[in-house]
What we know:
By secondary structure, the chain is α+β, with helices and mostly antiparallel strands. Helix content is 51%, strand content 12%.
Amino acid sequence: MSKGGLRFLAAVLTTGIVVVPFLGLDSLPRDLRKQIDTERQTYAAARVQFQQARGEVEGGLRAEPALFRTRNMAVLFPERLRKAEAALSEADREIAELTRLREANRRGDREEAERLLKDARARRSAALSEAVAVQAEAKRWLELKRGLPRMEQDLRAVREVDLSALDAAVRKAQADWPEKKDDLEARLAAVHAIPERATRAWEASGPQRLLASAGRYDALDYTALLGAFETIRNARSELPKQSQELTARTAQLYTGWDKVLVDMEVRRAGETRDYQQKIRTVTTKDGNVTSDEKWIEVPRAQYEALERNLGMAIEHKSPGKYDSEAERVAQPAGFAYMAPPSEGRNQYGYWERRDGQSFWVWYGQYALLRDLLFNRDYRAPDTREYESYRNDRRSGRTYYGRDERNEPKYGTSGSRTQQGYSGSTYARGGGFRDSEYATRGGGYSGSQYETRGYRKERDAATPPRQGSWRPDSGRGSFRPSPPSGWSSGGRSFGGGRSFGGGGRSFGGGGGRRR
């Protein structure tokens, strides 16, 4: 090839090398072009919505000219819409310019395109927001006018609500629970204030003058009228609601309940774990005791937070308290019903003294309550144990007690729990054996995991426990055994009552042995 040909080929190759890297780069960024396309679509939709809002407002002005002359709305609304449309028209011009730049697609127009896009968005958004605000305000006034004839009906309905039953229930609760008197009085006054407030709003706004003046709007204070309309409408819905809430709250004072954690399990399905708790809800009302048990799925954090508390009352609500005042620090089930030793007794039982010690005895009518709370494994605590429990409660701590080996007595690691709940799903799944809270020493006293050597030592050293089952006593029967150190003579433990509840079979009335 000649020298001239070589020079020509070199020039072509050099030009190719220089030009190729810049192909496609002299254009607007792809993301900016996409934003322009999106804004064009958004603007078109906003223009349609603006026209709809303006049409609705203008229709209302034509239909109710007298109403909108109030506060000069017939002039102010069109003026606000005119300014909003002017801003929208400016955005229209910016959108047109953006379209032109988009089609030219020159990199040098990037800054101008970004500025126009920002301004168009702001104008479009502000114009549409103003139009929607005018539309909403006009709609409120139209609704007000249509609702005026109904205001009197609503007020009449509010005034006709009968609060006599609520008054009687509150007065009775105040007498029965004096410590709640002030709170109940304030809540009842708030309920009675609802119809009173609605009446004052009606009288202050003067809607009756409107109804009597054949629709003359000029003399009315529409601000007050709008407030009255909303006050009376709200009163009609709020009065029954608040009345029912206070009735329910008053009824809560007559009910006590406990939520006892009677079982727990982690169910595995592949990589998934479901954390389950079985809750026994024991309710007392007017001396009657009912219970309900069910498994519930709980978050892992809740399961782990209560893992130490098998057999304990994880929530307790005493009569005379609202449900919102329930205690939620776990405690040995049943202890909350015992009277302080200084008081001696309460409606549930009493402290009985024998051989220098006092033990808690339940009245017969609460045998079922006792059995449900203690899982039919009740052994009477003495006053020293109760005082330790009460000291921990005052400090906000969970009381787990100590047995004769100085090991935990209650809760998942407690010796009493491992005996009383040895038939639970938790125990059958090896829970006591595997739990980090298991009793030290490997004994698992009374459970299926108890070591044989320890069982022999315990049986030899431990006196018969109160309320133990005796195979020769017949199915379902129950005999109390006195605590260690009590004489077998004299009157029976419980002051003439059988420990199972005044001669009733174990379980509060013929319950089956478990």
